[in-house]
Known about the structure:
The chain is mainly β and 618 residues long. It folds into two domains: 2-84, no CATH class; 108-367 and 493-612, no CATH class. The chain is 12% helix and 30% strand. The protein has eight helices and 35 strands. Strands 11, 14, 16, 19, 20, 21, 22, 23, 24, 25, 29, 32, 33 and 34 form a 14-stranded mixed beta sheet that branches. It is globular, with a radius of gyration of 25 Å. Residues 82-101 are annotated as: Disordered.
Amino acid sequence: MQLQQNNSFIGVYQDGTITICPGEGFSTTRVTILGPHPWSPATGFVDVTRGNEIEVPSFQQRGTLTGDVITWNNNTVWKRKPTMMPAKPATPARAPFTGASPASARELMGDINRTCRQKGGKYATYSCKQVSWDDVNRGTVGGALSCWGANITDTYLKSKSGAALFTLRPDNWNEKLGKVSAQDVALIVGNHQPAGQLRPVTLEKFLSQLGEFGQYANLAAGHVLFDEALDSTVSVRFQTTFLPIADEDKGTLEFCTEAYNYNTQDDQIPRNMVVLATTQGVAIQQDGRGKKQLFHHAPSDSTGEVDRFWLEAERSSHSVGGPQRESEAERNDALKRGKATAAVIGTKALETRFNVLMTIQIPLQQPRSPARPAWTGASPSSAAAFVPLAPPPLAFSATAPATFAPGFDLGAAPIGAASASAFGAAAAGGLFGAAPGAVPATCAPAFGAASASAFGAQPFGAASASAFSGGLFGAASAPAFSGGLFGAASFGAAPAGGLFGSSGAPLRTGTANAARVSRGTRQDTLTRQQLNPGLQSARRHPSEHVTVTIVIYNTVAGGVPTEDDIMAAVDDMEMLYAACNWTGNLGSSGADFMKSELTVKDAVEVSRRVTNFDQFPV
C-alpha cells in the first residue's frame, strides 16, 4: 500500500511496517506500527509508547494515530493513498436530531479539536486526550524530557458503561503546569465519618492530620504525610471535559476515573496515596498493580467497611467557565436530593464550584526489594532493553539469577552515566553478570543486533548512531537522537476529527452547562484492608512533591458544544494557570522539582510493568 504526504509519494505500508523512502527528506527508515487499528494487526514491536501517541525517533517526530491518519507534531499528515482505498459510498441524508440523542465522545473530540485549531493562539495549545499523563516525577535523559520516569501515571475517564471519555488539556509530553503551596489548595473533609459535617481544609492541614481523615481507609491514627519543605511546592494541572448526555432536564452520566501507575509493582507497596476530592468529601486510596478505578467513599461506623460509589455528572443551569453561585433555593434542592453543592475546592482562583473533581497524588517511599528483577530468555548484555522510549517485549522473572552482578545498585546511576560497565559494555558480567554480545533470538525482532556498548559513556540522546545499530527500526543505521530525547518538540497531538460525524452529516450544536458532580450509585463494599492493603505503614517519599490534577466537568446535551463554550472552557483554565504562583511547561527550569535523571531502576520498573501485567492499558 502506497502512502502519501500532501499528494506526494512518501513510502509504502506493508505487513504492519511503514517504509519511508529516500528522496523525500528522510533516510530509508522502517517504522513498525502497533494495533489494534486499521494500519496493522496487533502484532510486532512498536514505537508506540503511551495511548495512541506515537514516536519515531529516526526523524525526530511524534504524533497521534487516529484511524487511517497519522498527524505529526509539525502538522504533517499521513494517510492512506486514496487510489489504494475502496470508493467511499455516497453519504445518505441523516434524519434531523430529535434533541434527545447525545453526541459520541469521538464526535465531541473531533469538534472540540477542530475549534481549538481554527481559533489558534492559546486555544490551539489545547486538545482532547483519552489518556492524560498525570505524572509526579518525569525522567530526563541528558536534560531532555523522557516519556518515562520515577513516578508516572496515566489517567483515563470512563463512563459506567465502559465508554472511553476524554479531557481537554494542553500537551501531555511537555505539559503545562502551575505551582502552588499546600496552603493554597482546599478540599472538603467530613465524610470520613458517617453523617459527618462537611467542611473545607487546606491540603497542608489534611496531610498533617491524615490519621484523623484517613483512619477509615486503613491509615493508622496519628498518621502524618505532611512535609513542610516539600509541600511548599505543589504542582497543579487543569483540565476540563464535556460529557455527552440526553437532552433532558437534569440529564446525567455516571463515570469514574482510572489511574495506571507504571512504577507500582505490588498492591502491598503502592507508589502513591491517591485522594479523590469533590465538594461531597474525599476518598483515600492507593495506586497498585494495573489500572485502579477511583470511586467516592462512604465508610460505615458499625462494620468498619467502606461503600464505594460511582460519580455522577448532572446537567445544571449554570454556564461553562467560571465559578457557580447558587441561589438558596437551588442549593436546598440539591441538598434535598443528596447532590453536591458549590463550595471552595482546589486553588483559590476556582472560588466556589460544584463541577470540580480533584485528584491528589502523594508520593510514598517504597522499601527496597532484596530480589532484583532478571531477564528470562534475554541477553544480560542487551543494553537496548533499557531504551526509555519503548520497553522490550520480554518477560522478567520474579527473582535474580545466580549470575546477577553482585552489588549493582539499580537506583544509583542515571542512564548515560560514565560507567559503561553498568550496561555490560566493558567487562564480562556487565549489568547482569553475563558475557557481552550474546543476543538471543527473542531480542532480535525488537532491537536487531544490539551492541553491548550501545550506551557507553554518552547520555541517551547524544550524537551516537551506534546505539541502534541494525536495531529498533530495522534500518542499517538509525539516525542519532540529536538534541537529546526529541529535543523541545511538542508531543500529544490532537486526534483527527472535525465538523462531521462518522456518517458525514453535520453535527448538531447542543447545549453545554456546568455539571453537578455528585455521588452516584453504589459500586461495592470493601473492608479497609481490601480497600488499601499497602497504606497502613505508608511513609512519605523524601524528595518527590505532591501533584494535583483538577478536572472541571461540563455536560453537553443533544450535540456538540458551541465555539463560545469551548473558548470559555479554555479561557477558564488559562485564568487558573495565570493565578498560580508560577506557570510554565514541564521542560522549563521552573518545573525541575518534578523531574529527575532517568535511572536504570526506573527503566527496569517500567519495562517489567509493561511486559508482565495483563492490565496494560490499551
